[in-house]
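Extended Data, panel c. Modelled sequence:
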Amino acid sequence: MMHHLLLVPALTGLLQDPIPELEEVLQRLTPEERVARRVTPESMVVKHASPAVVFIQTDQIVESRDFFGRIVRREASGSGSGFVLKKEGFIVTNNHVIANAKGIQVSFAAGVDETQYTADVVSTVPEEDLALLKLRNPEGKAFPTVPMGTSSDLMIGEKVIAIGNPYGHTHTVSTGIISGLHRNVEISNPRLTFNDLIQTDASINFGNSGGPLMNINGELIGINTAVNSQAENIGFAIPVDRVMLVLKEQLLKPDAYNAWLGFSVLDDSPQVGVVSPHSPASEAGLEPGDVVIAINGQEVQDMDSFRFQRLEVQAGQRPHGARVQPAQLGLGRRTAL
């Protein structure tokens, strides 16, 4: 019993040790240290990634039926989010953000870029609810891009950050965790079925669609796509690995090209496979085994850069420094692989 009585005063003394007041702590800090004290992992991610997040506004034609069952078309406006994937101005968003749009305007955060850009639809995959846009960029400026991550190692409970434009409140940030993985979700409008989605409790609302879901390292892990409107803080994102697969296999497939050049390349490199007779490529002297090293003066570094640069070749476009040719390649011959 003596031991218990002796412990009480000792513990009481510990609890009564003075705790420094906040103002006392702050007075010992320099202005720079005060700012550093406020920095969080979340604020670092936002500073790093938000310059590449865009606000998308659309002019759309909406169809509905009147009292007599007749189809009525009317003009409406819509909005959503997206992010820059490539510095040339390629943007990824949800297809439902730009579906039926007759005009697309894109803007960045205030202080990043004050220009409002017009965007063109490069390609869409409605069943995956994904779309690829390209900013009209006459000055050829390089845009900030979102760092890429992976969705192959996601952990339930890990912290995530969503950036978007809910209800027109541009560049809104919300945080949360990954609440679940491999969710199968059905959407009624548009009617879609998603498999293997990321579930998060980060606040996602109408207008967040197409915006990035980031991990605490500032890397893209998903695209915010859907929300359960009958619940609170149940949102869903398409995993980034799925997005990149759709991009490679469908959004960047030859059907999306505006100009026919008359040659194909191998699956894993910009090496020429087949050249069609009497095609622009044939007339330019391209032969099987050649390797495309530049397109319109831009260096081709790998197959990904080939796909994106190939999209920008327009029908009727003349090559740099050439006198003829209906559409242009900047070609360089290497030893056949």
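The longest strand covers residues 71-86. This feature is highlighted in the accompanying rendering.
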